[in-house]
Design brief:
By secondary structure, the protein is mostly helical. The model has no long low-confidence stretch (mean pLDDT about 95). This is Carboxymuconolactone decarboxylase family protein.
Amino acid sequence: MTELTPIKPADAVGEVADLYAQMKKTIGAIPNMTQYMASNPAVLKAWMALSGALNEGTLPPAVRERLALSTAEYNRCTYCLSAHNFLAKNVAKIDEAEISLARDAASSDPHTDAILKLSDAIARGRGSVAEEDVKEARDAGVTDGQIAEVIANLALNTLTNYFNRFNDTPNEYPELVTPR
């Protein structure tokens, strides 16, 4: 059952219409999630700002999609699993084997694997991690700047996971990927 009332693009006025126009220009669509976020423009702006800022970070899109898949799996968010499965395949061009690994916080690439494992440790530790986890990431070449980005991506993905779980956002993506 959906908890919030969406603001459809055709019904958007004022600030929400402006945000939708910006989103349409930036990502080419107005996803269902954002139509529900628009019930409070500050929430939509926050998501857009953090998402946009992290798009300019050092982690490449393929790594960010893997982080999103891993976090969605951990948080059991079907909407985000579906969205990021679609984006991983069609935008980041990640193959099925890597998508499957990412859902388990793993990758065949050692650097990406270390990033995913650190993100998973941070999520499971609710922000606290063992020094060993950080050392393993650093030993694999993960920089302090990348660690900061991992934490920010985890926050962004947790926001959308919780938002969509709470809202039971209707899924518009072609494949429904269920949590394991």
